[in-house]
Design brief:
The chain is built from 14 helices and 9 strands. It is α/β, with parallel strands linked by helices. The protein has a 5-stranded mixed β-sheet, with helices on both faces. The longest helix has 19 residues, at 329-347.
């Protein structure tokens, strides 16, 4: 069995093997379940797995070892990238919702605190809460979303944006150049902003993945704008980010891949169709963010009383999601899924 350690790394040097180095493993399993697969970027990692297992089939492509195969476990469902990698390395794909388990672990106990204001006590003064930390590289869809926020004068909401991406170490003004063919004015729009934009009491955009925060901003906002880790391609991949508004007792809009809301509903959660337009979830990659921006703009133009009314209409959905997350419903679905995966390995070994 192999995995990447510490959490969040996915380079070849991060691979940890739990087998004996002096014995070639004919059957092995690689847990690449924390990060999404980026073709090209992660090829060296997958090649290293083969080398560690002395899997001559995949190293030389000349010698076929009878019965030699590997399993690839990911947190991507119905993924074209997983299909491509498994075809290339002759691996068998497996899936479970890793980030669902992570969220249950990381956000446990918040339902017993007084940090989160009760739903009926909240006074809605802002349309959305939108934290943004890593914005360059494979996550530049966050810059595209911020462009629409800035360009449509929605920056009075609770948002954050760094001046320099903390992961890629590239300035935002340089990073947005890659989007200039689609949005010719994007650099000038960002240049007009006083970056970085921090939340009150914060500097340098700290990592908040494994805990809840921004309780005051959450209690004032109609919805949480989730800018997920991936937002393009045929695949379902949600992370702990999606569960933050659920644990905070908030409505949400997801900037993710096509069908993200449908995917989340398959785990027993509910979304907000009938309260506002969720057709963006089925829009193609090239226009989905624009559809979301249009939705946010229409909500942002509403008077405060109308936003409060919309928020109140969301209460039944928010309460269902909160109870499903904290009272065992979601965990039961995850256990069934995990058992099905393990039974699949046993029956094919």
């Amino acid at each position: 069995m192999l995995t990447c350690d510490p959490f969040g790394r996915s380079d070849p040097d991060s691979i940890i093997s739990y087998g004996r180095e002096d014995i070639p493993e004919h059957n092995y399993i690689f847990f690449f379940d924390q990060e999404p697969i980026h073709l090209g970027q992660h090829d060296a990692t997958f090649e290293q797995v083969c080398i560690l297992n002395k899997d001559i089939t995949h190293i030389t492509r000349k010698i076929k070892k009878a019965g030699n195969f590997g399993w690839l476990v990911t947190s991507e469902k119905n993924s074209e990238n997983v299909d491509t990698i498994c075809d290339k390395f002759e691996w068998r794909p497996l899936y479970y919702f890793f980030h669902g388990w992570a969220a249950l672990d990381w956000y446990r106990g918040y339902d017993k605190t007084f940090l989160i204001k009760p739903f009926h006590e909240r006074v809605i003064t802002h349309t959305f809460l939108a934290p943004n930390r890593i914005v360059a590289g494979e996550r530049q869809h966050r810059l595209e979303m911020l462009y629409h926020i800035f360009n449509n004068n929605m920056h009075h909401n609770h948002i954050s944006c760094p001046a320099v991406c903390p992961a890629e170490n590239i300035s935002v003004l340089d990073a947005v150049k890659s989007l200039s063919s689609k949005y010719p004015d994007i650099k000038s729009v960002f240049a007009q902003q006083k970056l970085p934009i921090n939340f009150a009491g914060e500097t340098d955009h700290p990592m908040h993945s494994c805990w809840l925060s921004l309780f005051d901003q959450a209690s004032q906002s109609l919805l949480y704008l989730i800018t997920e880790t991936v937002a393009t391609g045929r695949r379902h991949h949600l992370t702990e980010k999606t569960f933050k508004p659920i644990a905070l007792g908030m409505p949400f809009v997801i900037v993710g891949t096509r069908g993200s809301l449908e995917y989340l509903r398959s785990y027993g959660f509910r979304t907000f169709e009938g309260i506002w337009d969720e057709s963006y979830d089925q829009a193609s990659d090239d226009v989905r963010i624009e559809h979301i921006a249009s939705l946010l703009q229409s909500l942002d133009k509403l008077p405060q009383s109308a936003k409060q009314d919309l928020f109140n209409q969301c209460q039944a959905v928010v309460e269902h999601n909160w109870n499903h997350f904290y009272n065992g419903g979601f965990e039961a679905v995850l256990w069934n899924e995990l058992n099905e995966m393990l039974n699949g390995i046993e029956s094919n070994s």
